[in-house]
């Protein structure tokens, strides 16, 4: 199930206004261009910010997310009709031959349960054409990002169109090995309503991710830095191997 921050209609409508700077997506857009991607699967597309950036480039996009309220926000945006939106996860996809599959922001870490993570890697692999790439980011556990998730350091007070003034902040509720749980609180000045959303992220070591990719049939092509957060995240670029049954065809496909 999706966290309330994404699944509750009143909270899903706050996602974009409370986090308006999406410069983190620039690197993914550059990679889509670098790889010449014409068909992209955006896993955990949320409110559709990245999917619509891709559509603006003339790319055929499928956006999938388990949170219906977030998809409602995405579908209401200008140009949303150019994207194929699916409520679900990487196991709920029609047959695809995507050039690129992406998990931006915290999506990979939010898939915290091992079985769900393995199913996501399998689903993305099946959706990619031979030679297609999976790209996603995950925070470096050594940087202990959760230590800044306090009310004092995360507090935001903003005016949101249609919602009025909203206050929000994060507080860590548990750290259990690689799992970090936290609660986000939202206070609506217009009517005094207080809503909370509980989340758990998995902080995977680089070696763990590399092993998971290999176990699910990917070839690791690169591990990059996040340009907007240097030294704090790993950006994995993994490829679905080319078919081995017809070398001549493989050579043509690579050309």
Automatic annotation (TrEMBL):
GO molecular function: methyltransferase activity
Domain (Methyltransferase) ranges: 40-132
Domain of life, per lineage: Bacteria
Keyword annotations: Methyltransferase, S-adenosyl-L-methionine, Transferase
Coiled coil: none
GO process annotations (BP): methylation
PANTHER family, sorted: METHYLTRANSFERASE (PTHR43464), UBIQUINONE BIOSYNTHESIS O-METHYLTRANSFERASE, MITOCHONDRIAL (PTHR43464:SF19)
Name of the protein in question: Class I SAM-dependent methyltransferase
Protein species of origin: Streptomyces prasinosporus
